[in-house]
Amino acid sequence: MQSCESSGDSADDPLSRGLRRRGQPRVVVIGAGLAGLAAAKALLEQGFTDVTVLEASSRIGGRVQSVKLGHATFELGATWIHGSHGNPIYHLAEANGLLEETTDGERSVGRISLYSKNGVACYLTNRGCRIPKDVVEEFSDLYNEVYNLTQEFFRHGKPVNAESQNSVGVFTREEVRNRIRGDPDDPEATKRLKLAMIQQYLKVESCESSSHSMDEVSLSAFGEWTEIPGAHHIIPSGFMRVVELLAEGIPAHIIQLGKPVRCVHWDQASSCPRGPEIEPRGEGNHNHDTGEGNQGGEEPQGERQDEDEQWPVVVECEDCEVIPADHVIVTVSLGVLKTQHASFFRPGLPAEKVAAIHRLGIGTTDKIFLEFEEPFWGPECNSLQFVWEDEAESHTLTYPPELWYRKICGFDVLYPPERYGHVLSGWICGEEALVMEKCDDEAVAEICTEMLRQFTGNPNIPKPRRILRSAWGSNPYFRGSYSYTQVGSSGADVEKLAKPLPYTESSKTAQGSSSKQLPGHLLSSKCPEQSLEPNRGSIKPMQVLFSGEATHRKYYSTTHGALLSGQREAARLIEMYRDLFQQGT
């Protein structure tokens, strides 16, 4: 029978015991993505010595995943540095020479990023016809005018009318349609093409927002997301280089890979008196072994060795190891919180935080890379955009599972070919992306090839020689790509999600009683019934902190938002222990 072990301070290490007596805090960071690494790095740089990073998967980086095939690097996750002026990701990449090989074409100033701003987007219909360039330009100007209107509701406090249903998609679709239909100069055939293009543009927008449909994105909150000025940049050597730069300053033993967490037990010190001491494990050794740390037969409990109090937080890992801590920084995705928050925290999260998790949105945006022996597209083409003419009057972006491929908005041409070869990158989002993830590579390659033949009107396009694709929605450690403000949510929900626990003003909104703390297999002695009511005067602040892109009010969905959120939570703890570290200097 597997026993649970507790990782404590080394009783034989005078330095560790001295730090514990001085109050050197132990911090556990859950997740080794940009937020987790940024938090750990900031803490270490400010003198924190007892920091552990637990990463569920076998790699660092989180939703940054660069895959090298041959001489080329492909991004399954984050691709662009969005903006340069004051963007910490940009400055980190620039300072370390990561942008030296970035071509002018890969510095895009446009709102919708392509792999290259050179060339033109080819808009193709399902009848195999290319939409004339002047029609595309006219529609694009009209769409962008309406897009700018969507920003005004938040930025200028413009009231949202009932017809829009507070939805970016509903508002945009109806506004653009009305303007197209009211244009006296366009012939009916041109109007039909432009009406069909609305759905294609909204698919692209949905992929950018990582929503199932723009109909689900809040109109009143849409303008709060803030774009950093400057160009979007691609890192030729891979976005993972930024992750590696962050990790360089973190000693290898601090990051534990393949270490999923089952539950964070918080508010422990206020709910149960100190029990029998346990034999601690060695400092820095948090890897599961055969149970030498629990040979006395006692069930473990997170107890301090040198202080007459409990640890306020205990992290229970899937391998049954128990790691006590003063503070835990949780960086898991909003998708994981949505599916697991009820079992991931004991006691349960406060009601307002749970409500914020439910209200905020996260969807799946996937990429499909297709490599061909030779290009079948012209040298001036930077993308192939798919317009279904029968969707001119459609009011939905949802398709039955067997028609999942209709959600593919198009394929971008990876540029330059000298670096990537002849590769197209397709985009798909929402529930249809989840259906795609369940298909095998052969089926996806076959369907994509048929689509390319249909829309180009070229029946001789060969099947790709290689396919590579992401699967963020079905990955249990992510459950989605990145967050958005869903209809019914606002930036205030982002703030609630980011708020540390326990709340300083009150903990009464917590779901479940504080008496429901560590389960029996983690306790060495039962709390007497009269001791179950916590002593609120002894609550330690900031036991559980939250970071990750979904917790940044202005920069959610971005890599710089993730990094800044990790630094933000580290700053809370640095400020909390400022006097301690000043005394130690």
TrEMBL record:
**Does the keyword Flavoprotein belong to this entry?**
yes
The residue ranges flagged as biased composition, category Polar residues, are: 504-517
UniProt keywords (A-Z) are: FAD, Flavoprotein
Instruction: List, as start-end ranges, the regions of compositional bias called Basic and acidic residues.
Output: 276-291
Q: Where is the Amine oxidase domain?
A: 34-267, 309-574
Name of one Pfam family that matches: Amino_oxidase
Query: GO molecular function terms here?
Result: polyamine oxidase activity
**Keyword Flavoprotein recorded:** yes
Q: Would you tell me the Gene Ontology cellular component terms?
A: cytosol; nuclear membrane; nucleoplasm
Q: Name one GO biological process term.
A: spermine catabolic process
Superkingdom, according to UniProt? Answer: Eukaryota
Cofactor names from the entry are: FAD
The segments labelled Disordered in the record are 272-309, 504-538
Query: What name appears for this protein in its UniProt entry?
Result: Spermine oxidase
| Organism this protein belongs to | Balaenoptera musculus
